[in-house]
Specification:
Chain A is of the alpha/beta class. Helices cover 37% and strands 12% of the residues of chain A. Chain B has a domain of 42 residues: Glu-tRNAGln amidotransferase C subunit, N-terminal domain (Histone, subunit A, Orthogonal Bundle), CATH 1.10.20.60. Chain B is 35% helix and 4% strand. Chain B is built from three helices and two strands, in the order αααββ. In chain B, strand 1 and strand 2 form a beta hairpin. Chains A and B meet through helix 9, helix 10, helix 11 and helix 12 of A and helix 1, helix 2 and helix 3 of B.
């Protein structure tokens, strides 16, 4: 079966566009036709922007016809996670709290994609405020895994990963605070990169845990990953944690050569809690690298088991502070109550936030409160130092680390919603990277019972180039990334997205329609 | 061990109204999570300095110059209640 336009990579589409074999409008229409076929099943998007997407595509076509030089991502269909601000296009964070929020400004990464003349198809579903690993914590609906619609796509950037896998976007942006790009990329069989903390501006990313959050690309291969990274990275004076300095051209690292690369296999990532099939796939990947000339050796990261509790003190603490801004005053939802301002704040936050967000706000507030700060929050910050040092020591001997992205392939919808710790454990292999601020990427490493399995490469700070080189070389030898889900078009729900969870169609039961 | 009274206190600090059912649930769940976090006490961190964030940045300066600003009507346009370009809130005192 010949490939459809929506199944191509950005760099393949670029060639067809510059040779004038297809138009950007045809590409855009192909994506919207694909949406009509499969979105009822996948439900990746909260908001679609058909008019805006087609207008941008037509503008690109006019310039192509006029023979103008266009940036490399011109006309490429993008999905944007719904916690990245888009001027004039609703940005809900999959929360009732922001159900009506239309940003008056663009995030820096959106300005940069607009400068590339990329086509923004819409805003993707996620766990509310990026807190979760499955999109089941979205206030709107659960996105389905395109490989198995009874399973989760991962999270929190589950909509972005599912869209790239299902052909309803060619590239996507997500955000990663503890694995939220890499874990859904693994579950959906795509490439998902979390850059070094500070490489990509967070201006316009709705803050969850500011010392951990980072925006990054989800793509079908490493050439696209490099192209998107080129487009979105770089210093920004509107983000004071943006790293200074230039970044160069990441496509220069797309070399089919890993000879001499020193690759460490962290022992702690291959032990307890890891599915046997996933372990086999990681070891097979290690063999591929070794065969291609890399030196592969075991390494130890002794504080690995402490990463999960450390993360689940630091991230909620930062979240409880960041989410204090949702008070019903300046934007978003306000509960209709009589009483004073504090009554209004409490009612707004209690009805506007979902269960997982409240749980983390409570946990974070507790960890920061008088009498507990030293025992929990400060302790966690100190252990964070030990976790960083583990990586620093490993990187004295190695250029890259290879690990599983997740302990198992995509789990069934509903399997982990009752037990928060069970859900948190699905991020056990991704959290430490955020605590240490390192770059890491998940790429398709193989399949188990028809479900994609991700392998994770972890690099030194600002060594995205090494990740791209190793990932690119791996994909020259393997074809896991070329497999596509056999989405049959079975319709589980009416297409159109945005259908709220509540059965009577109201996000705020008892408050009438809004 | 976390008590229901502590959960109520934390809820007040976080400006959340919790139902009785939520109070029960969060008391159990938070206690479980905090108990899990206790494994950090196995580590001696007396001589370890904390990492608040990973970049070696302290104060970040930029030139102080007038740049573009969002129009006021766009900014208050998202407010649940506004009057004459001001955010309107219930009484505070």
């Amino acid at each position: 079966m010949p490939l459809k336009l929506y199944d191509l990579t950005a760099h393949e589409l670029r060639e067809l566009l510059t040779r004038r074999e297809v138009s950007a409008t045809e590409v855009c229409r192909a994506v919207f036709e694909r949406l009509a076929e499969v979105e009822g099943t996948v439900q990746a998007y909260i908001t679609l922007d058909r008019a805006g997407a087609l207008a941008r595509a037509e503008e690109v076509d006019r310039d192509l016809r006029a023979g103008r030089d266009l940036p490399l991502l011109a006309g490429i269909p993008f999905a944007i996670k719904d916690n990245i601000c888009t001027r004039g296009l609703a940005t809900t964070c999959a929360s009732r709290m922001l159900h009506n929020f239309v940003p008056p400004y663009d995030a820096t990464v959106i300005e940069k994609l607009n400068a590339q003349r990329a086509v923004i198809i819409g805003k993707t579903n996620m766990d509310e405020f990026a807190m979760g690993s499955s999109t089941e914590h979205s206030a709107y609906f659960t996105t389905r895994n395109p490989w198995a619609p009874d399973r989760v796509p991962g999270g929190s950037s589950g909509g972005s990963a599912a869209a790239v896998a299902a052909g309803t976007a060619v590239c996507a942006l997500g955000s990663d605070t503890g694995g939220s790009i890499r874990q859904p990329a693994a579950f959906c069989g795509v490439v998902g990169m979390k850059p070094t903390y500070g490489l990509v501006s967070r201006y316009g990313l709705v803050a969850f845990a500011s010392s951990l959050d980072q925006i990054g690309p989800l793509t079908r291969d490493f050439t696209d990953c490099a192209l998107v990274l080129n487009a979105i990275c770089g210093p920004d004076e509107r983000d004071s944690t943006s790293a200074p300095g230039g970044t160069g051209d990441y496509t220069a690292f797309l070399l089919d050569d890993v000879r001499g690369l020193r690759l460490g296999l962290p022992r702690e990532y291959l032990g307890d809690g890891l599915d046997e099939g996933v372990r086999r796939i990681v070891l097979e990947a290690a063999a591929v690298f070794a065969q291609r000339g890399a030196h592969v050796e075991e390494v130890t990261l002794p504080h690995t088991e402490y990463a999960l509790p450390t993360y689940y003190l630091i991230a909620p603490a930062e979240a409880s502070s960041n989410l204090a801004r949702y008070d019903g005053v300046r934007y978003g939802y306000r509960a209709p109550v009589t009483g004073d301002a504090v009554d209004m704040f409490k009612a707004t936050r209690s009805r506007g936030f979902g269960a997982e967000v409240k749980r983390r706000v409570m946990l974070g507030t507790y960890a920061l409160s008088a009498g507990y700060y030293d025992a929990y929050y400060l302790k966690a910050l100190k252990v964070r130092t030990l976790i960083r040092r583990d990586f620093e020591q490993a990187f004295e001997k190695f250029d890259l680390l290879l690990a599983p992205t997740t302990p198992e392939p995509a789990f069934r919808i509903g399997d982990k919603t009752e037990d928060p710790i069970k859900m948190y454990l699905s991020d056990m292999f991704t959290l430490a990277v955020n605590l240490a601020g390192l770059p890491a990427v998940s790429l398709p490493g193989g399949f188990l019972d028809g479900l994609p399995v991700g392998i994770q490469l972890i690099g030194k700070p600002f060594a995205e180039g090494t990740l791209l080189r190793a990932g690119y070389a791996f994909q020259q030898t393997t074809d896991h990334h070329r497999r596509q889900p056999a989405l049959t078009g079975e319709i589980l729900h009416a297409a159109g997205g945005g259908s709220p969870k509540d059965e009577n169609g109201s996000l705020f039961p008892g408050e009438g329609r809004r | 061990m976390l008590t229901k009274a502590e959960v109520e206190h934390v809820a007040l600090l976080a400006r959340l109204d919790l139902s009785d059912e939520e109070k029960e649930r969060y008391t159990t769940q938070l206690a479980k999570i905090l108990e899990y976090a206790k494994i950090l006490d196995e580590l001696d961190t007396a001589d370890v300095s904390p990492t608040a964030h990973v970049l070696p940045l302290q104060n970040v300066f930029r030139p102080d110059r007038v740049g573009p600003h969002l129009p006021a009507e766009d900014v208050v346009g998202n407010s649940p209640d506004e009057e004459d370009g001001f955010f309107k809130v219930p009484r505070i005192f």
